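Lab notebook, bench 4. We co-purified these components, and the gel suggests they stay together. Before we commit to crystallization screens, I want a quick structural picture of the whole thing.
Request: model the full complex, all chains together.
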Amino acid sequence: MMLLELFLTFAQIGAFTFGGGYAMISIIEDECVEKRKWITSDQLSTITAIAESTPGPMAINCATYTGYMQAGVPGAICATLGVIVPSFLIIYLISRFFDNFLEITVIAKAFKGIKVAVGIFDCWLSFFWWGVCCDTIDKGCSDVLWLD
Amino acid sequence: MSYGWISEETFTYFVAVSESTPGPIMVNLATYVGSSKGGILGALLATAAVVTPAFFIILLIVTILKRALDNLHVQACLNGIKACMVGIILAMGLSMVIENILPQMSAEEISVDVTALMITIILLLNSWIYKKRQKKVISPIMLILTAGVLGTILY
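Here is the predicted assembly.
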């Protein structure tokens, strides 16, 4: 069932991205491009470029786009909901039951470790895209600079 | 804030929590503010409000403006943005890595966060070995879990 798969995949992406933005893109790259072949790297970098230039959280933009490409409007809805539901539940529980969430030492320590990983992702993603999109980027540079 | 819903201090706290929990920061923040002001209904409404515009904008672009995307000049713009984006991502990634490893860097003193340096090296080795053995790139989710566990043990 495509819609369920979209929802679950994006729920997984939503549940494991810290730091938002580009960290999420590298997980989408892995789940939707590498593993499931839903979209190509070039499409993902295009949608990221569009997401950058339109308002709203980038993760939502990417989820809506990928969902739409797979299963039309219902797909877009499922993927977008998928990305939101985990973080909604987590934050809702925190706001109800934890007053000093940040003072829980285990979480603070784990987060410090995760921050290191997020930095590495960003570097990895940029090198990866540099390789994959080299042609389009080259073309982009020459288009912008009117080199040819 | 113009509505006087929450104090500056609470806001700072909300942002910090939103940053250290999974998911898009904007969505987290909206849920948090909504929930603290209006319970479950407030949380639902605030989250929906932050998501809906982005959702419809993208839908609009992929349905109605699809042909505009194929336009040569729009393509040129997008390719140019992509080129910048790769640079921005690299700059962000590098500055994050440096900030983690060297939390204090000034002319007088440089302090090295040895634990962060260790985690960085372990993560890099881990993904390198995985790639050698399995012939494919390690899943970022695995790497995040590893980093979280390493953080709790080493810090």
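Chain B touches chain A through 76 residues (CB under 8 Å). Worth comparing against the SEC data before the next meeting. The longest helix of chain B spans residues 25-63.
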